[in-house]
Queue: 2 jobs
Job 1
Amino acid sequence: MAHGGQNKKCSDDEFIRLFTTHGASETARILGTQERGVYARRASLARFFPISAPTKAPVKEYPGRVPLSITNGTVLVGSDFHIWPGEASTCLRAFKKFIKDIQPSAIILNGDVLDFPRISRHPQNWESAPDPQQEIECVQDHLNDMEQAARRGTKKVWPIGNHDIRFEATFANSTPQMRGVRGVHLADHFPNWSKAMSCMINEGVEGGATMVKHRFKSGQNATRANTLNAGINMVTGHLHSQNVRPVSDYNRFDRYGVDTGCVADKEHRAFSYAEDSPLDWRSGFALLTFKDGRLLYPELVTRWDDKTVQFRGSLVRV
């Protein structure tokens, strides 16, 4: 049933999608109603769901990219989950808790959600590694928890990581004739998440344009190099290091390079290839907050111990 009693030929979910994508004037045109009626329905629905109009900047279409427009809201970004069957990592439990507590406008799984050690080109301890089907079923359970914790209308995006790619690459390289068979694509197993190479938030908005993708530059100064080369805010994973690097120049606003760290526990046996070397990694994820389309200083959530993460100067039990 539609709240507010207007535009009943359009469901609440469809109305929210139209309004957040096109704004009031275009939504009124599409629905064949008056603009004041659109605003009235938006006000009624806003009691239950935060609804933001899109930014004025035009959204361009790029292959493999998911665009998001978030004027006022939050985005939870986690990368490098490397989920295996068994006990969930500290930060995976925290990630679910933050979805429930913060109710972000969007959730981004920024690559390497799966690990796929059995189909890696690198040597593995194959006797203890899970099969791909076991991993997929385990990840389905965790992502279902996230979907249940999120509010209705939350955007769910999955920029692909190099470990995730192993699944489809295995079929493509060995049996390319299987490409049309259901099940050989990762999206077949996780239909509620938009798969992409990247996610662009608030494209064209000064101080707010933010590119989220699994990896870009490498090396010790990668986070700074990412945003320098991108020319906008840049959020990545892959390197597991977790840090925020502001960059200032003659533009009006600072921009930020963010490495979200790894949601996986860095001591997990999935990383046995590191041969017990000290790893300059941090287990955690990031919270992005947008105010009037502009990105505030990104915040990090970081593992403290097996049952606790640190956030905003406090310890949060998970």
Job 2
Amino acid sequence: MAFIPRRQALSRRMLLRGGAAAIALPWLESMRPAFAAPSKSQRPLRLAVVFAPNGQDMASWTPRTEGALALSPTLEPLKAYRKSLLVLSGLTINGGRALGDGPGDHAREGASFLTCAHPVKTGGADIKAGVSIDQVIAGHVGGATSFPSLEVGLEPGQAGGVCDSGYSCAYTNNISWRTASQPMPKETDPRALFARLFGDPDAAQDAAARARQAAERKSVLDAALEDVKRLLGKVGPSDKQKLDEYLTAVREVEARLAKDAKAETVVAVPEGLRGGSGFPERVRLIYDLLVLAFQADRTRIATYMLGNAGSNISYGFIDVPEAHHALSHHGGEARTLEKIARINHFHVEQLATFLGRLSAVEEEGESLLERSIVFYASALADGNAHAHHDLPVLLAGGGGGWRTGRHERFPRETPMANLYVSLLQGFAPRERAFADSTGPLL
């Protein structure tokens, strides 16, 4: 790596290299040109979309009052970030409804979530939904980063065929769509995601060298060690501390990935999938990789599926051994609803950890959480009713510039697309419409 003169600012695109490793840097003071004051309009904004399948126990999700936010039982794990939250009620995705097509609400749940489009009912190659809002935003800002967007998830799903009442598995497996007929496949292996973000030193070695490296548990940081040492000699004390914290986080994630590869995580069973004892760590690993991707500005747009639409993952580690989708057809039974609420609470606990990781990263005097919009929602309200209206929606972070710490209720049938226009305007202020929107929501 060729270093530039001490008086010249470091490039945000600089990489620490070694073998096939390519480690992007976090924001450092040394990247700011001399005498240049940071402009808020030029600071990168991030969007993380988190999809929670099968709806929610709405009685446990919905805050009891409007206005100042009083957290519901499901949202209670987010109490440390209450002032950064905005809970929205009353939003509808009309494209998720049958509209004459009969059963298949879970396929429509996935396909319409970010597109607000009604998918074509087919099990063949002629799939059609719509362009998703994350990809519209990536079209505006994705060129500034190595990855215009990242699509990740916990559940791989079938590559083809029919997964729900005559609907293609493409609809249940994906929420991100580049075009109306081209979904963006998600990465479900955190080790593969790490390799995409930071390179893989194994790729530059022969089989014998790879075997030695595996035995020595060599890190991508070890591969780039010489570049790391040279960089540390070029930056000031505060940047050294920040760089040390970042590289420590990278190494810690590597170590956890090594354990994850050996742990019981998701195991196929006849009824679907069973979350093993290592499953919570898998959830957190992917969240932490998204933090690193945002911190190093590898991407600014990410979608994370906590399960496929209609997911049958079970959660034995929280004493819920039944399949999630089966539980969602609760029939009003109190014990079943309590188990659904337990799953929902677990998901929100992991979200709280993600917000904590974002809030701990400083960038030009602000936290990464203050520079992000985290959008967490389900595309069904009550799973038993397959309700596509009054959806559970949560925004977190300061990136949108909205008044937070509140619960806002909108008139029934307010299009979810109105919220997506508001999200879009954070990245492209001149945009005024998306799908069936009638105007910006916020």
